[in-house]
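User: I'll paste a sequence; please echo it back and then give the predicted structure.

Assistant: Echoing your sequence first, then the prediction.
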Amino acid sequence: MEIEFTGVDLDEVPAVKRVLDTRPPGDSVTAFLSALRGELLRCGYMLSRVVVDGREVGGEEESAFSRTPTDGIERVEVEVAPTGDFVSDTFDECLGAVSRLQSLRDDIATAVRSGEVARVADDFARFAQGLSLLTTAYQDGIHLLVQLGVAGNEDIDRCALKMTRLGQVLREILVAIDTRDLVVVSDALEYEFPDHLSGLSDEFSSWTEQIRGSDAATGCGAPRAENRAEVEDLVTEKE
């Protein structure tokens, strides 16, 4: 199996070279990528893109190779990125997504005030999905920044509290939509979500500045690459 690396000098990460050199015969592609990912994270890097025999692999797709031995693969292309760079870039994308959600919230709130809940049902589904993507990226990023020494355990607790409150508001709206309690829906959209979205925007901006002002900016782990791609799609919807 031929392996091509870009984004990192393997001489600088000998632990990764050991993974390549000591790969057990018959080891599956999934097991190999898992071992490689673990060593890279310990060295301050992450897998940002993997291509197996011309097929790009990410997220759940990787499990499809759990029974495919590496000896049955001709070529694997691996792109590697410093974790800190990836986190800050992801959070930048999240800032754009927050702007998109704020605009979507305004549209939904206007329709609800006019009693046109059915008309914006699809918009609200996109709004809820967008919030889910943002909170996942936020939580992934904070946990990895703790590993890198940029954040602390208290930041994880604060993040969890924010996500719990946001989830409660979202569930209240979903129940209110089912019962057609437009007052609850309207109040939450107008008076609660703006603060939550503004808070997320402030978090993404603040952490991006801290990452770029620390050693994490040149080598460190990150939100899952496939989640960042979904966030980028959310931003693109606005354009």
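The CA atoms of residues 28 and 67 lie 6 Å apart. Strands lie at 2-6, 45-52, 55-57, 75-82.
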